[in-house]
């Protein structure tokens, strides 16, 4: 069960055991908190191309200033979740999720231009 299916989701203030288990679940050597492998990506690849492939490397995500922004980008690109799903899960509006995604992409583009 995840937070979307939980009867208490409107009132809880922290991850319950079920949500904690979901977040820490092993996905072939990765968890939601540990995604990406820099060795498998070309660092010269643009963020637009990278996001169209799906996974964003951990190193790029580390460049984000906001943990919330990182979480949203991981859920959207690395886990393939929809903006609506993320909004419901994190109790945000879809517009707020879209803004986090847009700003996150801009920050990642800036990071790539500085790194090159």
Automatic annotation (TrEMBL):
Residues 66-108 form the RNA polymerase sigma factor 70 region 4 type domain. One of its GO terms (biological process) is DNA-templated transcription initiation. InterPro entries: RNA_pol_sigma-70_dom (IPR014284), RNA_pol_sigma70_r4_t2 (IPR013249), RNA_pol_sigma_r3/r4-like (IPR013324), WH-like_DNA-bd_sf (IPR036388). Gene3D superfamilies: Winged helix-like DNA-binding domain superfamily/Winged helix DNA-binding domain. GO terms for molecular function: DNA binding; sigma factor activity. This is Putative sigma-70 region domain containing protein. It comes from viral metagenome.
């Amino acid at each position: 069960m995840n937070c979307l299916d939980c009867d208490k989701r409107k009132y809880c203030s922290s991850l319950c055991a079920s949500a904690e288990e979901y977040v820490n679940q092993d996905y072939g050597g990765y968890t939601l908190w540990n995604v990406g492998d820099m060795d498998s990506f070309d660092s010269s690849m643009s963020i637009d191309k990278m996001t169209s492939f799906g996974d964003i490397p951990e190193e790029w995500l580390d460049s984000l200033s906001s943990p919330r922004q990182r979480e949203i980008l991981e859920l959207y690109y690395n886990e393939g979740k929809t903006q609506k799903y993320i909004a419901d899960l994190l109790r945000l509006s879809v517009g707020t999720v879209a803004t986090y995604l847009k700003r996150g992409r801009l920050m990642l583009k800036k990071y790539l231009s500085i790194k090159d």
